[in-house]
């Protein structure tokens, strides 16, 4: 087995214009954090207790069992190693790689819901147990018949003041809870979203803490039906489940009562906003923005390294086969997603910091930031997961045939990450939530209100510049202005369409539906403007080393120009940009790709994914792809024997029969 680095990759690294460690530092927030990250990753990746057969060779049941064992071990080790809460994600992502795990919902939603929705007494009762994994919970909201439309949930929690209990019921087949991660086989508790009824009156969806399995033998409690929903497109390592209740009684104190309350006599105490009950989803949406940047970065790392190792065809007669990354069409497939990975990585950081600031404010009782936080996280969640989806698939196809093999790591990455466009709010629905906020803000600005935050730009619509003006389409200020103008114009046009539909006699819901394609377009443009502006702003950081600010500026330019050329109609329609501008933009893209080409490998190295996390034969750091492809294939279960048992069962008699008939 070759121990040295593939010569093509070696040369790529020698020829790059900067030290990737500097960008790694920038991406992770400083050298100390990078050091910590690498220590924790190395600890996890070199721990023999976490080693197991490739998941691609396992059944769904084996994948679940392997991951359950591994995740429980991880919890124990995290405790033993006393890893700081803030650093645990480094260790965790090295342990689980690109796979979800059966405790993901416990850590990602069950605990956060207790932090965010439980009263102090409830925290005192449950948090210690949940934090120490003495109980395991999930977030059970979606039902077979309703995921998107929360107000349409059918599960009921009916208050009985005589016993001071809630009676939990699943009235129909469509009311079965469906999908919650870790529900199928792992969890013994859940946060249940159910319609609250008191004295026959409905108060909408509320969160309840419900025990579903015995703490003694893990059997479903009386009145509880629970199980796994079966194989999925990906997520084999997780037991997504179904759940139904037949008049199960829980104490009054099990409704999470930080905001809404039910008094013993059945008096309902209203929350400051009914949407506070949706708080955990907002947090996860913000996390999905971070995750989208990371998964795209992984896919691009695999495809870029492989494209430097892979040599194919003949560019010049008689010359050696070139590295496929030297084909400009290959660069055009990968570099825009390389740039997008950087853009979303940085957007994710900003989104998390907005989330932290706003949620601190909200938990102190000031809910003024809630609408902006919801609109921003919904739009960015949708945009980033959509781009990551398309980008992962583009990267897979850019790896030719080998991209289709599980050895590439790309099919599994895609299958596990593509639900990000669906879960935690289906993307179109999320964009329409952002559009709702944009319409409201736009109308406020028409009434002379000064807007703040991500919609501040809607206050002053820019004029279309005079014809004949030339622009430098590489100037990030010019590009940000163009995105801002496009977003403001599309918001304006969606608002006009909405108004026209109303004036034509439609009621508000029908008008909204009729205008919804334009509304989604406006929300997309708004979110894209945010991403481009955020990228450009991060480059103004005066502490940024000049050797890396040049290459990051190129990526930012490429990201903005590629989006502009792809959506050129939006920029041209009202004459804001001219055909000359767009032609110039296209030429700049080609020039930028040529400049980025020598730095491509260093730019993906800078994401700093160790091989154990990438889990890809094609994306290996050392580039020794071919020998490891063969080794990987040999490990396939079908190759355990030279002659498979099915030969004796089926093939042999079939062949013998055919031969006998000759
Ligand atoms: C030991 C090792 C440690 C390692 C540590 C590391 C741990 C990391 C672990 C991370 C793992 C994470 C794993 C997570 C995996 C996720 C799996 C997926 C889970 C799920 O999918 S859960 C289910 C999600 N479901 C949804 O998202 C449903 C989507 N639907 C909705 O949100 C609502 O129904 C919808 C569409 C918003 C509509 O709501 P509705 O009530 O009908 O509202 P209206 O449209 O009428 O609007 C009314 C009004 O409310 C505003 N609004 C709506 N939502 C919100 C909100 N969330 N916040 C604030 N405001 C909101 C809306 O804008 C309207 O405002 P107006 O002012 O216009 O009236
Ligand atoms: C892998 C995975 C894990 C999950 N984990 C969990 C979990 O742990 N807990 C949990 O509770 N749930 C979970 N879910 C469920 C998930 O949250 C829902 O599937 C998601 O919210 C989408 O809802 P839906 O399935 O009802 O889609 P639907 O709403 O039925 O979407 C179908 C189509 O209808 C369109 N549509 C729906 N409403 C509108 C509208 N108002 N305007 C325009 N178009 C509309 C959508 O855009 C989409 O194209 C998980 C799902 C998956 C795939």
UniProtKB/TrEMBL annotation:
Reactions catalysed according to its record: decanoyl-CoA + O2 = (2E)-decenoyl-CoA + H2O2; octanoyl-CoA + O2 = (2E)-octenoyl-CoA + H2O2; (5Z,8Z,11Z,14Z,17Z)-eicosapentaenoyl-CoA + O2 = (2E,5Z,8Z,11Z,14Z,17Z)-eicosahexaenoyl-CoA + H2O2; octadecanoyl-CoA + O2 = (2E)-octadecenoyl-CoA + H2O2
Swiss-Prot/TrEMBL cofactor(s): FAD
Residues holding FAD: 142, 181
Listed name of the protein: Acyl-coenzyme A oxidase
Molecular function as annotated in GO: acyl-CoA oxidase activity; FAD binding; fatty acid binding
Taxonomic source organism: Branchiostoma lanceolatum (Common lancelet)
Keywords on record: FAD, Fatty acid metabolism, Flavoprotein, Lipid metabolism, Oxidoreductase, Peroxisome, Phosphoprotein
Domain Acyl-CoA oxidase C-alpha1: 278-439
